Amino acid sequence: MPIYEYRCEACGESFSRLQKMGGGEEETRCPKCGSSEVRKQISACVVGSGAPAGNSCSSGGG
Ligand SMILES: [Zn+2]
Predict the structure, then answer these.
(1) What's the 40 CA to ligand 1 centre distance in angstroms?
(2) 56, 18 Cβ separation under 8 angstroms
(3) Whole-angstrom Cα distance, residue 33 to residue 26?
(4) Other C-beta atoms within 10 Å of 5: how many?
(5) Which residues are found with C-beta within 5 Å of the ion, ligand 1?
(6) Res 54 pLDDT > 80
């Protein structure tokens, strides 16, 4: 499951959210201050081809 990172524009708190599958878009709110002014961050982990050598995501868990 893909995890999206968010950053609160109000307090600057950064948090991650698990994207639900087969669900609609839910409003993401900051867990710290509760503000809805959050921005989705681009994850540095690139999935697919074209990934630079040396910088790979550590696979594991599950
Ligand atoms: Zn906040």
Answers:
(1) 13
(2) no
(3) 18
(4) 14
(5) 8, 10-11, 13, 30, 32-33, 35
(6) no
